[in-house]
């Protein structure tokens, strides 16, 4: 029997789960079992937990459906636990180093107590000083083990479940479990403290609670706010008969939470009056004898609640809210004429049949937004679409696509009125997220390099990124965020923390890799000027933040000579270096200015890249990929990466021009080792791309279909990529 069982629910925190699990397994005290609780065997967190279970026999995951909520996940962990003491750890929190050793030593001093309360540290998600809110609650209590009567103000309702260790036999004897519904920590804390006979405290931080940027889910508006009173009633009923001091302290602390919610009618779009009336009945029914109303404003609120004086209570708390809302509605100063018109347009009703698209800050009709637009024309013809394009690029727009020039009067007008806004980057800083509008962030690649707020520790990148606060303000506008694989899902969660919903639908721009025909491949090659019978190798290096301009890093003419007489190179620099002019010399064809990266990939027989995200898209074609990594260590130190590409490459790796040429000259880029590496890479990173991504987005976002009506992802083994030119010729 292990000394400790650590139960870790993982719903919605797959991106940070590994840090929580690492913090447990790295403890110096190793007599433990670790129980991650995952939604289902195929959930994002399940793969993370399974990898840990393979490496460490102390890890054994269990499953609990999302519908069971946090309480169901923790109860599933309790049923699976074998430890003498149970600890609960949220999946995005960590145990501090040495925590279990401190717990074991303290329990050796106190003997077997029912509950051992501990301190925890609340760490701001970004900047600010950490706080220890449990310390004042644990101060002044006896030093050894004691009965709850000796510390009546230690009620448990103000402490989260992960701020204590619980004796498993005590929970079983008293048949204690987490109550269903929201605010389960309040119910659990109250029930366990009411039932406990011997408790103790450890005045040391055990858990580091990392605050979510979007705040607690319990603070979000919705009908779940009414469930707070279910937990309150459960605790107060179970506490009937407690000695006077304990009963009064519990009552005061419980209703302190109730009053905070009652003072926020914005958290309950409907039913706030009913909430207040029920809270008033509970206050009158369970108020213990001898309870004295607190002083000051809180005491007034208690009295108004007890009297059921809803109107007076609202008046007391309403003045500040009205002033705050008025301040929010004030227009921004120094607004140019077009922005003033924009402010007026924001007062007009949303156009429910208008969608605005933008790609790469207005580069034109490309990438995921263009792919979604093309399918929406067929599946949602009632939606009128307007593409945003920067001035000077109007000629790049297809003739049958309506557009607006960025910065123009019409640009601001459609942004103000559109219900749907689709972008693969972000809309301008001044764009307002209107109630009822739907913002879709499509992204434009699978992340190898650090993104979003993860860039903050890399000075060169951070300096170019600008204000991270403004970046996160733009993230707050997202309603949906696309992902093409679980790696991306978890990375976006960390890099762009927000309240959006992730759609694991694949990237719409990659649909063409499964829908294109042999004729499409031939046409793409001819459009790019690839000579018949030649092996077209796409060379696509990424942007380097520590360079001031484009540096190819490779003598391409020399490579062609050394690689073989049939090789030609398609050079595609990062889109930062697209100046709209294509050029080529000899066997090198510059396709940087070609509007469609998908056409270029279809035309290529093989890909050479360093660290560009194009490798993840190209892998869908199941064609050879070679990594030319002559400065990997410099890149990973200056830019930061999410995984070691050298350990998990999509194909052979070359560090010098000579090695690169040899890989093509001897044909090893086509060999079995290359195919094996590519297969593993495709399994991980081509997870959801199957040719139906755009259709999924249109049906879910524009047509409002429920998740069960969205086409399921076709298994990788059953997908048929577009044929390579060699197959076309044969």
- Quaternary structure: single chain
Measured between the Cα atoms of the first and last residue, the distance is 65 Å
* Overall radius of gyration: 30 Å
Structural class: alpha/beta
Instruction: Please bin the fraction of helical residues.
Output: 25-40%
The average pLDDT score comes to: 89
Q: How many individual β-strands?
A: 22
Output the number of helix runs: 28
Lateral arrangement of strands in the main beta sheet? 3-2-1-4-7-6-8-5
Q: State the low-pLDDT regions, or none.
A: 326-335, 575-584
Report the β-strand fraction as a percent range: 5-15%
Report the sheet with the most strands, covering strand number, pairing sense and barrel closure.
8 strands, mixed
- Bulk shape: globular
Protein architecture, described:
With 730 residues, this protein is α/β, with parallel strands linked by helices. Helices cover 39% and strands 14% of the residues. The protein contains 28 helices and 22 strands. The model is unreliable at 326-335 and 575-584 (pLDDT under 50).
């Amino acid at each position: 029997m292990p000394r400790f069982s650590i139960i870790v629910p993982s719903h919605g925190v797959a991106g940070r789960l590994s840090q929580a699990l690492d913090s447990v397994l790295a403890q110096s005290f190793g007599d433990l079992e670790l129980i991650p609780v995952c939604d289902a065997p195929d959930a994002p967190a399940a793969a993370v937990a399974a990898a840990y279970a393979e490496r460490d026999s102390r890890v054994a995951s269990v499953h609990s459906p999302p519908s069971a909520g946090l309480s169901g996940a923790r109860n599933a962990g309790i049923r699976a636990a074998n430890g003498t003491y149970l600890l609960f750890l949220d999946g995005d929190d960590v145990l501090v180093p040495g925590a279990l050793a401190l717990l074991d030593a303290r329990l050796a001093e106190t003997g077997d107590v029912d509950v051992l309360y501990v301190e925890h540290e609340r760490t701001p998600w970004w900047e600010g000083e950490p706080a220890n809110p449990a310390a004042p609650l644990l101060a002044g209590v006896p030093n050894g083990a004691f009965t709850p009567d000796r510390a009546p103000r230690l009620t448990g309702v103000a402490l989260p479940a992960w701020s204590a260790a619980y004796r498993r036999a005590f929970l079983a004897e008293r048949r204690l479990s987490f109550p269903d519904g929201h605010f389960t920590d309040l119910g659990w804390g109250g029930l366990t403290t009411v039932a406990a006979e011997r408790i103790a405290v450890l005045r040391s931080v055990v858990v580091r609670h990392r605050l979510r940027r979007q705040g607690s889910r319990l603070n979000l508006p919705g009908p779940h706010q009414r469930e707070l009173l279910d937990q309150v009633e459960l605790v107060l009923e179970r506490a009937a008969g407690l000695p006077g001091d304990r009963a009064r302290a519990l009552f005061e602390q419980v209703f302190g939470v109730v009053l905070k919610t009652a003072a926020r009618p914005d958290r309950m779009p409907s039913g706030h009056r009913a909430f207040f009336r029920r809270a008033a009945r509970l206050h009158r029914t369970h108020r213990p004898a001898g309870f004295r109303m607190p002083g000051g404003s809180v005491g007034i609120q208690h009295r108004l609640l007890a009297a059921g004086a809803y109107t007076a209570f609202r008046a007391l708390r309403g003045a500040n809210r009205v002033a705050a809302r008025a301040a929010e509605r004030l227009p921004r100063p120094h607004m140019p004429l077009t922005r003033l018109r924009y402010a007026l347009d924001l007062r007009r009703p949303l156009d429910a049949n208008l969608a605005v698209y933008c790609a790469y800050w207005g580069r034109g009709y490309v990438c995921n937004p263009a792919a979604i637009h093309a399918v929406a024309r067929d599946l949602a013809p009632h939606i009128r679409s307007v593409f945003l394009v920067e001035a000077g690029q109007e000629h790049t727009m297809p003739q049958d696509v309506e557009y607006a020039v960025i910065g123009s009067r019409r640009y601001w007008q459609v942004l103000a009125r559109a219900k749907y806004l689709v972008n693969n980057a972000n809309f301008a800083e001044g764009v307002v997220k209107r109630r009822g509008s739907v913002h879709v962030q499509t992204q434009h690649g699978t992340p190898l390099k650090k993104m979003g707020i993860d860039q903050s520790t890399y000075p060169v990148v951070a300096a170019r990124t600008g204000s991270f606060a403004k970046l996160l303000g733009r993230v707050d506008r997202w309603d949906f965020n696309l992902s093409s694989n679980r790696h991306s899902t978890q990375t976006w969660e960390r890099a762009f923390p927000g309240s959006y919903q992730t759609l694991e639908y694949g990237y719409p721009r990659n649909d063409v890799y499964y829908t294109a025909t042999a004729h499409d491949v031939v046409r793409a090659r001819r459009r790019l000027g690839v000579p018949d019978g030649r092996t077209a190798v796409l060379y696509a290096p990424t942007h380097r933040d520590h360079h001031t301009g484009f540096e190819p890093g490779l003598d391409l003419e020399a490579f062609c000579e050394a690689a073989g007489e049939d090789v030609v190179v398609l050079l595609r620099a990062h889109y930062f270096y697209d100046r709209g002019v294509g050029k080529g010399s000899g066997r090198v064809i510059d396709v940087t200015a070609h509007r469609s990266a998908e056409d270029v990939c279809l035309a290529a027989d093989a890909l050479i890249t360093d660290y560009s995200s194009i490798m993840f898209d190209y892998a869908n074609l199941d064609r050879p990929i070679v990594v030319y990594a002559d400065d990997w260590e410099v890149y990973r130190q200056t830019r930061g990466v999410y995984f070691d590409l050298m350990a998990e490459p999509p194909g052979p790796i070359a560090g010098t021009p000579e090695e690169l040429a040899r890989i093509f000259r001897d044909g090893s880029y086509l060999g079995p080792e290359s195919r094996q590496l590519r297969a593993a890479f495709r399994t991980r990173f081509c997870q959801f791309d199957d040719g139906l991504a755009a259709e999924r987005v249109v049906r879910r976002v524009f047509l409002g279909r429920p998740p069960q009506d969205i086409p399921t992802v076709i298994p990788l083994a059953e997908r048929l990529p577009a044929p390579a030119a060699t197959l076309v010729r044969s």
